[in-house]
Amino acid sequence: MEAGGERFPKQRQVLILFILLGVAFAGWESRRYSVMEETMSGTLVANLAKDLGLGVGELAAREARVVSEDNEPRVQLDLQTGELILNEKLDREEMCGPTDPCVMRFQVLLKKPLGVFRAELVVRDINDHSPEFPEREMTLKILETSPPGTVFPLKTAQDLDVGNNNIQNYNISPNSHFHVSTRSWGDGRKYPELVLYKELDREEQAELRLTLTALDGGSPPRSGTTQVRILVLDVNDNAPEFAQTHYQVQVPENSPVGALIVKVSARDLDTGTNGEISYSFFYSSQEISTTFELSSISGEVRLIKKLDFETISSYELYIDASDGGGLSGKCSVSIEVLDVNDNSPELIISSLTSPIPENSPETEVALFRIRDRDSGDNGRMTCSIQDELPFLLKPSAENFYTLVTNGELDREIKAEYNITITVTDLGTPRLKTEHNITVLVSDVNDNAPAFTQASYTLRVRENNSPALHIGTVSATDTDAGANAQVTYSLLPPADPHVPLASLVSINADNGHLFALRSLDYEALRAFEFRVGAADRGSPPLSSQALVRVLVEDDNDNAPFVLYPLQNTSAPCTELLPRAAEPGYLVTKVVAVDGDAGQNAWLSYQLLKATEPGLFGVWAHNGEVRTARPLSERDAARHRLLVLVKDNGEPPLSASVTLHVLLVDGFSQPHLPPPEAEAEAAAAAPADPLTVYLVVALASVSSLFLFSVLVFVAVRLCGRGGAARAGRCSVPEGPFPGHLVDVSGTGTLSHSYQYQTTSVLIACSNSVSNYYSEEDISLPIVGHYGL
Fold first, then answer.
1. Candidate from 74-88, 541-555, 634-648 with smallest mean pLDDT
2. Could you tell me which residues come within 8 angstroms of residue 270 by beta carbon, excluding any fewer than 6 positions away?
3. Dmax over Cα atoms in the chain, in whole Å?
C-alpha cells in the first residue's frame, strides 16, 4: 500500500493523460440501435460498415471486433458484409429486469490505427408476461360503520414487462358495495384501492367474495386475478398511524446477512384487539421479498441476502400496519445502497502478439481493456507495468490500453519477458489486479559465427597416415535455430601454388581437419590457410580464422657422408707423416642429415682400426687425429671404420672407411697400395705412360671437384626452397657438446687449416704422384667444406 501511495501522483498523471487521449480517440459519435426482445439469433441489427463510413474490406483489414461491457457475446460483427447481427435470442427481463429502457452498451474496436466506435443496443419490450398477484386470496376486514367513500388499499400484482406492457388498470367483479380505483406511485407503477360506495350491514351480509383483475397495456392485453375476501366487522374507530410516513436509510453494500436496516413504528389508540398492530409489506416484488425480511410484530426490517451496489443501488419498500379491527396505515422506506470498494479491477485481453521479432521498432504486443464495477473513486483506476522492462503502456479511448515495445529488442540479451500488468483502483482500501503476460522474442540472423580463436596452430608429425585427424576449429553463433547452425569450409588459399585441396580437408558439420596425404618435413615444413564458418540464416553470415599447420620432423633420414666419398671405385687414401705429433689432424669426416633439430645432431665414433689406440675420432666434429706418436713398428697402411650417428629416436647411422698411408715425409714417395704395385710393375717398361697418367689424374681430380661443387649447390638450393615454402626455422636450443649441428642452416662453426708438405691423392688404378711443398687452406663451409 505504501508503494502504491508513493506512485499515486504518477498514476494520477497517467489517468489525466488517459482522459485526454480518450477524447482524442473519440473518432465517431455514439449510435443507438434497437431490437425487439425474443428476436431470433442471426437477425440483422445494423450495417456498421455504412454507419462508420468504412469499406467492408477495411473492417477486416483493421481487425474489427465487438467488445461488450459485460463480456457477453450477444451480438457479432460479420467482417465479410459489415453487418451487426444478433448472436442469441435476447430476453429483456433477464438482461435488465425492471430497468427501462434496457440498454446494452458495446464498442467496436478497430486496429491499425486504433479506433473505438461506441454504440448502444436498446432491447424493446414485448408483452410476454402476464400480471401476477403475490397471493391467490387476500382478506380485508372492514367495519360495518365505514362510511361510503372509504378507501381500502389492496395488494398489487407484478408484471415483469415494462412501459405499456406493464399493469395499467385494475377492476373488480360486479357487486353492490365496492368498486376499484387505480392509482399511480411516484415511479409510475399502478396500485389498486378498494372504494366503498354503499354502506355495509354485517347483519345483512357478514362476508363478501370478489375477484380482483389486473390488466396490462399490451396488445393483446394480458391479465391476472386474485380473490378478495371481505369480512364485515363491528366498529373500530382508530386506524394505526406511523411515526413517519417516509423513512430514508443508507446501507453499505457489505452489510452482513441479518443486519438491521430500519425499524418502523406505528401506534393505534384503540385497545384490545383493535389496538394490536401487525406489520406487512404492502407492495413486495420478488427482489424485495428475497432481500429483506419484515417482522410483523416489531416492524424491524433485516437483510436476508447480501446487497450488491453494482446490481441494484436502491430499494423502495411499502409497509402496511393493520390493527385487529381491520383498520390500517401505510408508510414507505427508501433504502440507498452505499458503494463499497469490493470489486477488484478487471483486465480483458483483446489481442496478444507473441513472439516478437528482435530488432523491430516500436511494436504492438497486446491490446487490452480495464474496468471496475465500483463507482466514484472506487471505480477509477491506474494501470502500470514494471519500470525496468523495455515496454510502454499507451492509454486510448474507452479504458483501452496498448502495450508496445520501447525500442528494439535483442534476443541474444533476453529471449523471454514476463510482464506483469497491474491495475489499481483509487478506493479505500485500494484493490488491484495483476495479469501476467509472457512475451517471447523470435530470432533474427544478426550475429555472425565467431571462432573460439582468431588463429589456430596445429602440429602434425611427418609421415602421417592419410585421412589423419590433425585438429579442430570451432565457431559458435549466438542466434538460434537455423541461424545458429554453423557450416565450415576451406577458403581459397592466398598463394595459388599451395595445393591446399590435396593437403587438408574439413568436416563441414563439426570443423574437424584431416590431412589428406602423408606429409614430408623435408619438403614442406609449414603451411597456412583460412577456414570459413557460415550460418544457415537468410542472408547467411560468416567469419574466418587462420589455421597454421606445422609439420614436425621425424627421424626418417640417416646421416649422409659427404667426405670421404664412398661411391668411387677406388677409395681415397690419406697421407700421414711418421713424424706427426699426437693430435695431428689426419682428415675430417664430413656428413649431413636431412632431418632437423636433434634428429640432425650428429656424433662420430671410431668402430674399427688396424692399429687400435693409434687414431681417435672427435665425437663432435668428425676430426680424425693421431692419439700417440708414431713408431717404426707401426704398419705403413691403416684402415679405419668410422660410424656417423644422429640423435633421433631411434637413432639412424652411416659408416665410412678411411685409408691412411704412413710416409717418412711428403718429399719422399710413398709406398703404393698393393693394387697399384701390380699395375706399376706392368707399366714400368713404358715410361711415357707416366705423363699420360698424370694428365688423366689431373682431369679426374678436376671433374671430381666440379661434381662436388655442383652437388653442394643443388643441396643448398633444395634446402633453401623448402625453408621458404614452409616458413619454418630450426628450433633453437643448446646443442650437446659432443654433437655437430648439421641442420638446415648448414654452417659449421669452425674453419680448419690443413698444412701439408705434399698432398698425394691415391685412387684406384692410380700411381704415386709427388707435389711440391705448399700450404693449402680449406675452410669448412656448411655440410660440404672439405
1. 74-88
2. 236, 237, 238, 323, 325
3. 206
Strands 512-515 and 468-472: antiparallel
Q: Which three cell numbers stand for residue 334?
A: 427508501
Sheet containing 391-395: which strands, arranged edge to edge? 346-352, 364-371, 400-405, 391-395
Q: Give tens-digit pLDDT for 395-419.
A: 987 789 999 998 888 888 888 999 9
C-alpha cell at 103: 440498454
Angstrom distances, CA of residue 114 to CA of 56, 79, 81: 17, 17, 21
CA distance 638 to 615: 10
Which cell goes with 356?
516478437
| Mean pLDDT, rounded, for 170-184 | 91
Q: Cβ(61)–Cβ(70) under 8 Å?
A: no
The DSSP bridge partners found for residue 762 are 573
Q: How confident is the model at residue 678 (pLDDT cuts 50, 70, 90)?
A: very low
The alpha carbon of residue 645 and the mean position of all alpha carbons in its chain are separated, in whole angstroms, by 66
Query: What three-state secondary structure class fits 651?
Result: coil
Q: DSSP 3-state assignment of 340? A: coil
The span from the CA of 692 to the CA of 683, in Å, is: 12
Q: Distance between terminal CA atoms of the chain?
A: 103
| Mean pLDDT, residues 347-358 taken together | 89
CA 158 distance to own-chain centroid: 64
d(CA 707, CA 774): 25
Please give the Cα distance from 715 to 638 (Å, whole number). Answer: 32
Question: Which pTM was predicted?
Answer: 0.54
SS (H, E, C) 83-125: EEEECCCCCHHHHHCCCCCEEEEEEEEECCCCEEEEEEEEEEC
For the beta carbon of residue 257, count every other beta carbon within 10 angstroms. 11
The mean pLDDT of 287-296, rounded to a whole number, is 91
SS3 content of the chain, % helix, strand, coil (to 5): 15, 40, 45
